[in-house]
Design a protein that fits this description.
Structural class: mainly alpha
Shape: rod-shaped
Distance between the termini: 13 Å
Number of helices: 6
Number of strands: 0
Radius of gyration: 26 Å
Length: 169
């Protein structure tokens, strides 16, 4: 059994699952059952005799069939469990920007300024409000997405540790 070869195959498998997870979370359509189905389809590569991963498992089975069975059982039985998580929304930041916009229009209209200043100053205030609050909200959403990815990656890392333990025996 070539440990380096396994590490390369496992890294490819890990990267495929984590990138799928990141795509689903970023798109905002994370469905655990669909994610588990796709992970299961990735896991079938380890059982197939036509893929490099499957050939590696066959070689492992020739050396130690119990390790191969335990490995296949761990890989095929892995499923993500749903994590309780509430994603922040942008509504609060849009409301803040809208309030500042309305207040700037009211305030600058009450001053005795020339007409172009009455138009230009509220527009600048609106641009500043949206330029400040919206990126702040998007940053919070990005941080929440990173946290969610790390929670699901931790589940997958537990699988990796269990597999390393089985192969080390």
């Amino acid at each position: 059994m070539d440990n380096q070869q396994f590490n390369q195959y496992w890294k490819n498998y890990h990267d495929a699952v984590v990138s799928l997870l990141i795509r689903k979370i970023t798109a905002g359509n994370l469905n655990i059952s669909m994610l588990n189905n796709e992970v299961e389809s990735f896991s079938k590569r380890w059982k197939s005799e036509r893929t490099a991963e499957g050939l590696w498992v066959n070689n492992l089975a020739k050396e130690d069939s119990q390790k191969a069975e335990a490995f296949l059982h761990l890989v095929s039985s892995f499923h993500f469990t749903e994590v309780s998580f509430e994603k922040p929304t942008m509504l609060k930041y849009h409301v803040y920007a809208l309030l500042i916009s309305v207040l700037s229009i009211i305030v600058f209209m009450s001053f005795s300024l020339s007409i172009w200043k009455k138009i230009l100053l509220p527009v600048l205030a609106i641009m500043l409000a949206y330029g400040f609050f919206i990126p702040m909200g998007k940053g919070k959403i990005d941080n929440a997405n990173k946290e969610l990815v790390s929670k699901y990656s931790a589940q997958f890392d537990n699988l990796t540790q269990n597999i390393n333990r089985v192969l080390a025996e």
